[in-house]
Amino acid sequence: MSISRLGRGGGKHRPCGNFVRLERLAAVALCAMIALAPVAVAKTLKVATVSPDGSAWMKVLREAGEEVQAATEGRVKLRYYPGGTQGDDTSVLRRMRAGQLHGGVLLTSAFSNIYGDLQAYNLPMIFRDLAEVDAVREKLDPVINAGFREHGFVSFGLAEVGMAYPMSTKRARTVEEARRLKVWIPQGDVGSARILEAFGIPPIPLPISEVLAGLQTGLIDAVTSPPVAALPLLWHTRLKYVLDLPLVYIYGTFVVSARSLRGIPEDDLATLERIMGEAVARVDRVNRADHDAARRTLEEQGLEFIALTAQEEAEWREYAAAAARNWVAKDVVSEGVYRQVAERLADVRASAH
């Protein structure tokens, strides 16, 4: 057989033709793989909060949202619904679980019936001052945040609102005197009701929007609130007395439902968690400064801070200690987490002496 006949395709083997066909098949397969590969679709997370536009929370969250969008090249966006337009915290959480919203900036009381250990810092009078708060949170925040995932949520961190003090239009020092007051709690707030129950104080539930009118008409004559909340809501204009006793530590969290993050590429998800985590930590620091300033402002506005005698304070603490034991016994807060908080506080108080 001559070379010329092979050149004209006269032989049985045609390596060049096979190679061309293989190239074409590879190209077709590659195109099919590209066509069938998952395409990263832009994800918009809808997040609601009662915090008004212009508040410290919203300023920081909007900046962080823009940063997330830029860092992910538009693949992840955040759309905010501030000012309670989607309802109170309980309503927002219900919408999240129904898939109507993806996330919320919520006070921990909204999770009372879902994630008990989130109430660990809410135990009545568990902290004597903010230095103790810092010591416990440094150790326990990672534990609390990790627990969210077990309940179908992802938390970007905890942010302080501040210590809540009993504030009233009438002077009251003892537990017995406080029981005669008409004390407001947020409507549907199981956690707040549980706290007042610990002291035998009957609550009057109202929407937060009706508190100022309630103080004006006498429907209620007392609230338990951080100074930073009482001022912008103008409650201080109707109040006269503040019991100088930190009754409960109030804090919130920025959470999203775990299912809302499905489909977001891992790199984008890491970017989202990093940026929003830094944002919540920034709000946490800002709120501490605001809390201290708000307390001073209440004093400047003429509200009288009532200092208790040692005996009066001991009575309040006795009821608070009984409440802690009761919460653990009823598994409102798990014994394991409560023990970690108590041990950390014991170490801090021992080192202070």
Outline the biggest β-sheet.
Answer: 8 strands, mixed
- List the total number of helices: 12
Provide the helix percentage: 40-55%
Query: Which class of secondary structure composition applies to the elements?
Result: alpha/beta
Low-confidence stretches: 1-14, 28-39
What spatial form do the alpha-carbon principal axes imply?
A: globular
**How would you state the average pLDDT, rounded?**
89
Strand tally: 10
| Cα end-to-end separation | 106 Å
Q: Return Rg in Å.
A: 29 Å
- Order of helical and strand elements: HHEHEHEHEHEHEHEHEEHEHH
The proportion of residues in beta strands is 15-25%
Write a structural description:
The protein has 353 residues and is of the alpha/beta class. Helices cover 48% and strands 18% of the residues. Strands 1, 2, 3, 4, 7, 8, 9 and 10 form an eight-stranded mixed β-sheet that branches. A two-stranded parallel sheet has the order 5-6. Strand 1, helix 3 (56-71) and strand 2 form a beta-alpha-beta unit. Helix 5 (130-150) packs antiparallel against helix 12 (335-351). The longest helix is centred in the last third of the chain and has 35 residues, at 266-300. The model is unreliable at 1-14 and 28-39 (pLDDT under 50).
What's this entry about, in short?
Helix content is 48%, strand content 18%. It contains twelve helices and ten strands.
Write the layout of secondary structure elements.
Blueprint: H1 3-7, H2 15-36, E1 43-49, H3 56-71, E2 76-81, H4 89-97, E3 103-107, H5 130-150, E4 153-168, H6 175-178, E5 183-186, H7 190-198, E6 203-206, H8 211-217, E7 222-225, H9 227-230, E8 241-243, E9 248-257, H10 266-300, E10 304-306, H11 310-329, H12 335-351
Parallel strand pairs: 1-2, 1-3, 5-6, 8-10
Antiparallel strand pairs: 3-9, 4-7, 4-8, 4-9
Helix pairs in contact: 3-10, 5-12
